[in-house]
Amino acid sequence: MRQSQSFIPTLREVPADAEVKSHQLLLRAGFIRQSASGVYTFLPLGQRVLQKVEAIIREEMNRAGAIELLMPALQPAELWQQSGRWYSYGPELMRLKDRHERDFALGPTHEEMITVLVRDEVKTYKRLPLTLYQIQVKFRDEKRPRFGLLRGREFIMKDAYSFHTSQESLDETYKKMYEAYSNIFRRCGLNFRAVIADSGAIGGKDTHEFMVLSDIGEDTIAYSDASDYAANIEMAPVITTYEKSDEPLRDLEKVHTPGQKTIEQVASYLQVTPEKCIKSLLFKVDDRYVLVLVRGDHEANDVKVKNLFDASIVELATPEETKQVMNCEIGSLGPIGVGEAVTVVADHAVKAIVNGVCGANEEGYHYIGVNPERDFTVAQYADLRFIQEGDPSPDGKGTIRFARGIEVGHVFKLGTKYSEAMNAVYLDENGRSQTMIMGCYGIGVSRLVAAIAEQFADENGLVWPAAVAPFDVHLISVNAKNDEQRQLADEWYEKLGQAGLEVLYDDRPERAGVKFADSDLIGIPIRVTVGKRASEGIVEVKVRQTGETMEVSVNELIDTIRRLLQ
């Protein structure tokens, strides 16, 4: 492609609203442009990278036995109502009506649609297992789109769905998809980890997220410093054991704590450590209220609360709900004297507290000398807190460390969540009706492009891995007015293309400095510069990733480029 005839609008300045490296560079290098908040156009260079990534995904999915199809983005509300997600998915689901006032959703995912499709077309065990996938635009009405392609309202996703007659069959496909995902991210050159995860609004059990390691990642990965254990922080179990102190039990006493609301304020005011305090949080768990107790130096984990109650929706009660249910402000909550309308559960660490501190359910007052079971009753003790750095690793090997990650893929064992709700059944060998067992596997394709850009960049611009770069070679004619340079560059533009190499040819009448700066910004793996030694048939070859340069005879140019790309 001749750069003079292309559409690569590079920018010299960093856009003011671009917070992270990938967003800044993809804008500056002319790969994307924002159309609206969280909505982007892929310009020609961005589209080429996207196509390279999609090609890798297709190769690995096809190798794993999946079959590609394409489903509509516009989905009838009835499908979502059948599964129950029309009501539970939340405000991220983009809903609209047609001219006849019929409800539709712009699909954030396609579990409902694929389940109905297979339900209506597959009637017998002989056609199972079956894995279908698509690469398609998805929509989520993010409250706060940010970081460019990393969190948008319109994005490109590869989603796959598998259907089975047995758990063993699902396990086998799950393993294939796990391996396919690992191959995809490895081929993209990424530093990633597969971590144990929560299924969120998708549902199901036994899920893994694939995280690209990055300081700007929105997810925290808890990993062992002595094994390959890794989990999303919300899913990592705590195996710490707690010992009660043998200090004598004190009498329960209500004390005045004016203006002290946070654990830090209360602990300082009463001259105790946060470990002595009981933190009380009121959650709304589906249609019930639950008071969750954790130690003052710990944080309550809402995902673990959700899983404890097998709930669909878990959220902190609002100040208004807290006042109505507990008759006090949030900063004064405690478990003593709680009525039967509220279920009290506690993290294991709370059980070991002796002579602790908790809110008195009265503004400006706390209890001291608090002892669980003597002073209040707990319906159930469970692991309800977030794991912390330094905790023992759940696999018993080493201790926990934290890293940040960008989620680029997620694999789920859905089980029968959707097939039961939508009556997706088949006839088994004995002619009996059985419910299909399902799996679900997603990759954020456009997010993957941003994650690669985040990991592969330097102070001068993008540094694309060869497998996903928009072109193999950036050919530059230093002086377009010099006949020898122009003729040699024109000749080798044709020859490199004939050799099967993808070439971006900068034939613009620009200064050399502008061309070199744009080349570094765009980040094509190999740069070939036709300059002052053109008359000798000598060109300069530069490797973008290492900065290594060499002078090469044009007779050896193709072999040199292929060697460097490999």
Given this structure, which CATH class of the largest domain is correct?
Answer: Alpha Beta
Residue stretches low in confidence (pLDDT < 50, at least 5 long) are none
Main sheet properties? 9 strands, mixed
* Count of individual helical segments: 15
Radius of gyration: 29 Å
Q: Describe the oligomeric state of these chains in a short phrase.
A: single chain
Chain-averaged pLDDT:
95
The CATH homologous superfamily name of the largest domain equals Bira Bifunctional Protein, Domain 2
State the total count of DSSP E strands.
31
Q: From the 3D coordinates, which CATH architecture of the largest domain would you assign?
A: 2-Layer Sandwich
Please give the alpha-carbon distance between the first and last residues: 22 Å
Number of folding domains?
Answer: 3
Q: What share of the residues does DSSP label as strand, in percent? A: 25-35%
How would you classify the helix and strand content by structural class?
alpha+beta
What CATH calls the topology of the largest domain is BirA Bifunctional Protein, domain 2
Shape: globular
Q: Fraction of residues in helices?
A: 25-40%
GO molecular function, one term: proline-tRNA ligase activity
Pfam families: HGTP_anticodon, tRNA-synt_2b, tRNA_edit
Organism: Parageobacillus caldoxylosilyticus NBRC 107762
Enzyme class: ligase
